[in-house]
Amino acid sequence: MDNLCVAHRGFSAKAPENTRTAIQMAMDEPFVQWMEIDVQLTQDGVPVVIHDYSVDRTTSGKGKVKDLTWQQIRRMDAGEWKGRQFRGEQVPSLDEVLQLVKGRLKLNIELKTSGNMYPNLEEAVLERIHAHRMLADVVLTSFEPKALIKAKELDSDVNTGLIIDAHPRNLLARLKQMKCSFLSIGFSHLDAAFASDLVKNGITPMAWTVDDAKSMRSLARMNPAIMICTNRPDTWSQTFIHKIAPKVPFWRRKWRF
């Protein structure tokens, strides 16, 4: 089975998304090769791993991430909303996640921004990636084209990818113009012909968010290069695991975009 499993915000079906527990649970599954996380900046410029622009849904706190300091966010409980057994979970910094997964998982890091919400997000994220010497192990993705263009301007070697939940006719041309080597696309907008065109042009497609076996099998039939991003790595395992017999551990493979 060649369609790689990407744990969406960690093993988010079972643990609070984007937390150390969710990440560790994903890492505990030997077939999980990649993980998708979301990164924003605190008021004092610390890259933190959280999805929503507000902390309200996934923590015990209130307010927008950009208006809160790292220490304020650190004091919030980021686990009890998912279950009492996760009480005490914290919002992790990007540093903590990079340190945790280095040498084991590759990362799809979504630059969670819109317009000029975070003027220094790209610099801050790239700085931490370089500090951990993980440039070859990550791809930076975003719904915001400006963020991807800026990341490429800061470091031409970084792999970048557009996130989109649509399939406009000019999408392939846009990706080439932006020098993207990756596309994160809502799975219902992907078909075999487009997947083939992407691969032929050196662009890796990732389908999101796919939690049922039927859709996973459909994507696998389209093209073996399609990465499957899921909240349910266990469903991916039940669907495909019997076909996996890698000669080299996943975390030791060299990845190309």
TrEMBL record:
Residues 3-240 form the GP-PDE domain. Gene3D superfamilies: Phosphatidylinositol (PI) phosphodiesterase. InterPro entries: GP_PDE_dom, PLC-like_Pdiesterase_TIM-brl. It comes from the Bacteria. One of its GO terms (biological process) is lipid metabolic process. Pfam families: GDPD. One of its GO terms (molecular function) is phosphoric diester hydrolase activity. This is Glycerophosphodiester phosphodiesterase. It comes from Paenibacillus solani.
